[in-house]
Design brief:
Order of helices and strands: HHHHH
Largest sheet: none
Structural class: mainly alpha
Length: 147
């Protein structure tokens, strides 16, 4: 089996032999429901790369269901906040807006998520990045969305 490459806390690959800063669950071995639960916990803890990975796996698990677009949106939200923390303004804005569109298409309370409020928060954060009121980078501070 190929060894896992070490990663920093934002999921970026580190040099071989470096200390791994990121421990992820084996999302492929878990149920869709457990991945959603873990992703929400990771998001609440500000662990956006892990949240993204768990929701991305849930999206694949939900393939060919009406929930696939919902999980794709949640995964994009996680990736958007990863880009924000990594200093990528364009990636953050783009993914947060895409996520808002997908998540906002679902009824409020869908799978425990207040979709309308989340959509509004994602659009507001994307706009703040665009205006320069929320400056991407490792020291960025923002109120996390309620998931």
């Amino acid at each position: 089996m190929k060894p896992e490459r070490p990663r920093d806390r934002l999921g970026r690959p580190l040099a071989w032999g470096a200390t791994n800063e990121l421990e992820l669950e084996d999302y492929d071995a878990l149920t869709l429901e457990r991945n959603h639960e873990l992703a929400r916990a990771h998001a609440r803890a500000g662990e956006w790369f892990a949240a993204h990975e768990a929701w991305e796996t849930a999206w694949k698990q939900a393939r060919d269901t009406t929930d696939a677009e919902f999980f794709k949106g949640l995964s994009q939200m996680g990736a958007g906040y990863v880009h924000l923390l990594r200093g990528n303004a364009h990636g953050a804005q783009t993914l947060l807006r895409r996520a808002a569109g997908r998540i906002g298409a679902f009824a409020d309370g869908h799978l425990g998520i207040r979709t309308g409020a989340l959509r509004d928060k994602l659009l507001a954060d994307a706009s703040r990045v665009e205006r320069g009121a929320l400056v991407p980078g490792g020291n960025v501070r923002f109120a996390p969305p309620d998931v």
